[in-house]
Amino acid sequence: MGDEMSEVAAALSPREIVQRLSSLYGAPTWRPHGDPMTELVLTILSQNTSDANSGRAFMRLKARFPTWESLLAAEPAAIEEAIRVGGLSQVKAVRIKALLEEVLRRRGSLDLSFLSQMTPDEARAWLEGLPGVGPKTAACVMLFSLGMPALPVDTHVHRVALRLGLVPPRTPPARAQALLEAWVPPELHYPFHVLLIRHGRRLCRAQRPLCPRCPLLQWCPYGRSVVASSPHSSEAT
Q: What is the pTM of this model?
């Protein structure tokens, strides 16, 4: 992390964060989510919505278009109708169709299994060359489908990292991802990502975080300020 490493990051190692959060939430075990194209489309559907809504949108999409080829041949309006439950359906329909067209143009098929034969840097560059695919989406495909080191920064990971001071204040998500990927050892990318999401959902919530219960409180500037200013307010559920 170089000059951007905070005092907290220097004092609290990624391994200790994983160990402390694992003692609270359990140790995550990596399991592949699906083939790379499935993960890519599912990640696009997950943008700006809940996991439940994106999951429903994906199931409806696959029920309507069982193969990637049938999805590619569909009109954007039909795709939009199928994924409406996931929100931002018009934007996402256009993105999905555009990336399928680009994959076919570049590869001659809609099979992304070749990515597993690439290095992580090569796979990331190839994925980010697709329309609508940024650092987080590429990292999700790498981590969850290909089993490659990558550390996607979603809203929960971003919030926890900022509050802990692992990245500088106002660091945007893409930059936070680059900093965290460089700081966290590759073998810890998966548990670190999953545990920060669990922590962000259960204790380090956007509203009314439960700071007194946090196993990282002694290192967290945000949490200590919350507890010091209002010792009892964060204990309410």
A: 0.89
